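Practice problem: predict the structure.
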Amino acid sequence: MRVISFSIFKGGTGKTTSSVNTAVALARKGKKVLLVDLDQQASATRYLDLDPEQAPSLYDVYMGAKPAALAIKRTKFGVDMLTSNGLLAAIEEALEPGDELKLAEFLTPLKPTYDFILIDTPPGKAMLAFNGLAAADLIIIPASAERMAVDGVADLISHVQRIMWNKFSLSHQELRILFTMYRATTAHSPAIVSNARKIWRDNILSVKIPHSTVFSRSYDAKTPMALLEPKHSGAISYDVFADWLIKYNDGQVPAS
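Answer:
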């Protein structure tokens, strides 16, 4: 099985959209999936129509009040979840250097139960974000097809390789870049992806998530794309990405 973190220090690039829709796409293919919401904004929790204020949550796990296995909630979309809420802000304040592996420790007993554990990380260089990175076998970097987001990709990769891998012996991790908010009919998005591929080559995934206002509508409806508009290009793109992850998880090492 794989623990997969959706991570980039820049906000607004589609981390939550990608983690939620990928989780549901995998579940619809018969995979057992756990989604971990590490962001105190609890957007992934709300997206899957769960109440952030309903205990237990990931806050209780970090506080030691509940083991992770007893904090898991079922969703109506076939995905299990460790939910978030605003109390994670207190956890963020309490975590200290050396606590980067706490989430990995919480998730270890759950691994035999799942095919995939997906983590929606918060933006910024904070301890919970580092927890999400350190717990992962595969880091998916959702990057909107714009120059500022590409700079964010470079920042995250540099941090992971220079600090995380050396400090915590995580060189087994792999990274892949998933371009989001892609506008195929413009010259800008293809140029951004082409230039990025010159730098990161096969770490760029061939699937691209299109720009669409339907994603916002999906979030407002608390209904993932696979159920709201299954024939939409966005839903199809996440379905293709889920197929890639399954092959990757099965050791087929598909082309990016």
